[in-house]
Amino acid sequence: MKRSMLDSVIDQWLVVPQVETANLSGKTVLVVGANVGIGLEASKHFARMRPARLILACRSEAKGKAALAEIERETVYNGCELWILDLANFASVIAFADKFEKEGGDLHILVMNAGILQHVYQPTTDGWESILQVNYLATSLLSLLLIPQLVAAGRKSSTPSRMVIVSSGVHYWITPTEEVRASSKPLEMLGSKEWCTPEHMQSRFFESMLLKVLFVRALTDRLQSITPLSAVAANPGFCYSQLRRFWYEQPFSFAKMGLLIRERLLAWTSEQGSRQLICAAVGGRDNEDSVKGGFVNRSRFVEVADFVLSDGGHKMQDTVWNETIDILKGVSDKIAPIVQDYLIRP
């Protein structure tokens, strides 16, 4: 599918679909990046569906506690829990997954919403470029580490579990450079300081959103059809969000003024954007097979970008998957057994 900037503008001007609802009694929901914006609003919607447990994974304890109080105040739901997680630190991700294995029990819905946007190169303590680690590598790491809990819940339930990876419609507008597509280790190239020039960093957020779509589709290809788990990517749309706080903190510029104008003309509220996450998490239950590996836009499962569907896209998808698994095997010794026990060769 090809989608232009005009298509996205039209989407933003159309009536926003209503939020979907479901009976989540007895189920466990985990929302990563739940303290602000669409993650917080999605958590409120989940709270109104009364799951047995709603776990908010946040980097800041203070902001997490504030979100917890706001959800309880607005929804009169007291099943929220705050767990601390920093995707910019692989050790934090591993500790979180270990804690969930011991204390979390089965997991019915996972929403990987946390992400960052910046235009300067900044490495994490693990040595990776920050956007690449937070938006993609750490997101993939936690998603894979939680597969046993997701599958266990699906096997005990009448419906498959859902893994929702929050991506973006900007994946329609990015085609990796020829050098990246030709590389046997595109992630290593993208994460290198030499590659992360100011020019290349302008497209890094777009690239990370494309990588998320590739991850969802690659994972789906490797899940047996009988495995009770559906992985879905979701586009929350252009919303008012703390994601762009990098821009808000900058001194006045024409670029900043342009962003503020675009927000005033086009942006949805965070609550409206969160409805797409909810659709990805509970929608389409009448045709689960069509949901697997799907992409949600305006509360509908739609076709992804032409590049993703192309031969070159399939080749890059497999290359990135293999490199991702190789990298994450070096981060956690649990990745290899999970890949062996739960996934197959496509």
Automatic annotation (TrEMBL):
Transmembrane segments: none annotated. The keyword Oxidoreductase applies. The keyword Oxidoreductase applies. Keywords: Oxidoreductase. InterPro entries: NAD(P)-bd_dom_sf, SDR_fam. GO terms for molecular function: oxidoreductase activity. PANTHER family: PHOSPHATIDYLINOSITOL-GLYCAN BIOSYNTHESIS CLASS F PROTEIN (PTHR43157:SF31), PHOSPHATIDYLINOSITOL-GLYCAN BIOSYNTHESIS CLASS F PROTEIN-RELATED (PTHR43157). This is Short-chain dehydrogenase. It comes from Suillus placidus.
